[in-house]
Amino acid sequence: MSIICIGEALIDMICTDKGTALSEGNHFLKKAGGAPTNVAAAIAALGGEVCIAAKVGNDPFGKHLKNILEEFGVDTRWLLTDPEYFTTLAFVSLMENGERDFVFNRGADGRLSREDLQNLTIAQNSIIHFGSATAFLPGPLQLSYLDLLEKAREQNVFTSFDPNYRHLLFPEGTSSFIEQSRYFLQHCDFFKVSDEEAMLITETHDLITAAQQLSTISNAVFAITLGKEGTLISKQGENAIVPSITVQPVDTTGAGDAFVGAVLFQLSQYPAEARRQLSFHEWKSIVAKANKAGARTCEFLGAMEAFRHLNQAILQ
Question: How far apart are CA 44 and CA 245, in angstroms?
Answer without folding.
Answer: 23
